[in-house]
Design brief:
Blueprint: E1 2-5, H1 7-16, E2 32-36, E3 39-50, E4 55-62, E5 72-79, E6 82-91
Antiparallel strand pairs: 1-4, 1-6, 2-3, 2-5, 3-4, 5-6
Length: 107
């Protein structure tokens, strides 16, 4: 499933240690935990910044009975070798599905 990570919380983590937030130039393939109610429920397997959506997004492997579209979760994030959690929201895939993709040409 897809998740959107709360960028404001990511910025706050970096601000606490007086560093600029790091926007990855490539997708991170390191598996990081996904939590629901403080319980480990899965893992995000690919995390990246989407320049099109202007959001940090991730693909996660989580049981459908645990999380569904629109549900809140928490995603693990490492900042300067310290593990933190940031809020995330489950979103439908694909992340970007413009109407023009399936538009019928006007004749």
């Amino acid at each position: 499933m897809g998740i959107e990570i709360d960028w404001n919380e990511v910025e706050a983590l970096y601000e606490k240690i007086r560093m600029a937030p790091q926007v990855p130039s490539m997708a991170s393939r390191a598996a990081v935990p996904v939590y629901r109610g403080g319980r480990h429920v899965g893992k995000a397997t690919s995390t990246t910044w989407s320049p099109t959506l202007k959001k940090m997004i991730a693909l996660a492997t989580v049981g459908r009975e645990t999380l569904g579209n629109g549900d809140s979760a928490a995603n693990g994030m490492t900042v300067e070798a310290v593990r933190h959690t940031v809020s995330a929201k489950v979103v439908p895939l694909p992340f970007f599905n413009p109407a023009r993709k399936t538009a019928v040409p006007v004749v």
